[in-house]
Design goal:
By secondary structure, this protein is an alpha+beta fold. It has helices spanning 66-80, 83-95, 104-110, 112-115, 118-121, 158-164, 197-203, 207-211, 267-270, 278-281, 284-310; strands at residues 125-128, 138-145, 169-179, 184-193, 234-240, 247-255, 265-266. The radius of gyration is 23 Å and the shape is globular.
Length: 312
């Protein structure tokens, strides 16, 4: 009798679904003083919004008809004879003076939206040493994660959408964080494109200034401190396109108490010396730019690691 014969067959695990709600993390032990340990008095963060997940994102595949499949197969057969010439063209193009070849991590970064876990792209906590006014330290806690989305006005500001669509806008990922005092909220976005390295370098030059008052949409979260974070609560923002990643990183910050802001300011203006308005004094410009820079570094590190693992 084979080992295990007669034992019930264990159920096969089902494949994870993109953005399936995970089990909630264990709650910290209650404080004898009636507040959440590790938080300032009166600031107890609620659980993360239900749309949060830590499963891997999946690419969205188009349905193919039988006729289309046959056409693709025919093209593949005809293309076999051209592969040698195509490869030669790629090698010649890469060797052209003034045209640097794309680094391996550049291509890997373009696939991170469905290859990397959500906790890698949007860590549950994100440290920002020296990211606040006067080089004060900042710590951000993730409170909402949205499902990955197609590029549309619902998730991208109008000017940015018009800018990245000609490059091939792949997918948009968004999350909302709050600071350690739960007094500010920041929605961050990762816009993955199919831009080549040359187009990406051009895209990133002074992007925020070129787009003008192109404020990214806010992502609220029911039952979180971002519940009242909407378009009228947006206070400061930043948009960046790193030259070495086919990604645009956006961030928009606001007050967690739901107060409205008449004139949102780009982060560099809100961070200028001598500003005395509420947005500048609260450090919301520092929040937007600081979290953008941290996510860029994280993406770069993740892409390099993925490229190194692929070449082992």
């Amino acid at each position: 009798m084979l080992p295990g014969a007669g034992a019930p067959t264990p159920a096969r695990p089902t494949a994870p679904t993109a953005f399936a709600p995970p089990s909630a993390p264990p709650a910290p032990a209650p404080s004898p003083y009636g507040r959440t340990p590790g938080r300032p008095t009166g600031y107890a963060l609620p659980p993360e919004a239900p749309v949060e997940t830590t499963t891997r994102l999946r690419p969205v595949r188009e349905r193919r008809s039988a006729g289309r499949t046959a056409a693709v197969a025919a093209c593949a057969v005809l293309g076999l004879g051209l592969i040698g010439g195509a490869l030669a063209g790629v090698w010649l193009a890469a060797s052209e003076p003034g045209r640097p070849a794309e680094p391996v991590e550049y291509a890997e970064a373009g696939d991170l939206w469905h290859n990397a876990p959500v906790d890698t792209l949007f860590p549950r906590t994100l440290a920002g040493p020296g990211a606040g006014p006067g080089a004060a330290a900042r710590t951000w806690t993730r409170i909402v994660v949205a499902p990955d989305a197609a590029c549309s006005p619902a998730v991208l500001a109008k000017g940015l959408l018009a800018t990245v669509e000609p490059l091939g806008c792949e997918r948009v990922l968004r999350a909302t964080y709050t600071d350690a005092t739960a007094s500010s909220v920041i929605t961050v976005g990762l816009v993955f494109t199919r831009a080549d390295a040359t187009a990406q370098r051009t895209l990133g030059q002074g992007l925020t200034a070129r787009l003008g008052q192109d404020v990214p949409p806010a992502l609220s979260g029911p039952s979180t401190v971002a519940a009242r974070f909407g378009d009228r609560q947006r206070a400061s923002w930043w948009t960046s396109a790193p030259a070495d990643l086919p990604v645009v990183v956006t961030a928009v910050s606001g007050f967690a108490d739901g107060r409205t802001v008449d004139a949102p300011q780009p982060a560099d203006r809100a961070m200028a010396k001598g500003r005395t308005d509420a947005v500048a004094q609260s450090g919301l410009g520092h929040e937007a730019r600081g979290i953008t820079e941290r996510l860029e570094r994280l993406l770069r590190t993740t892409a390099v690691t993925a490229a190194q693992e692929k070449t082992r």
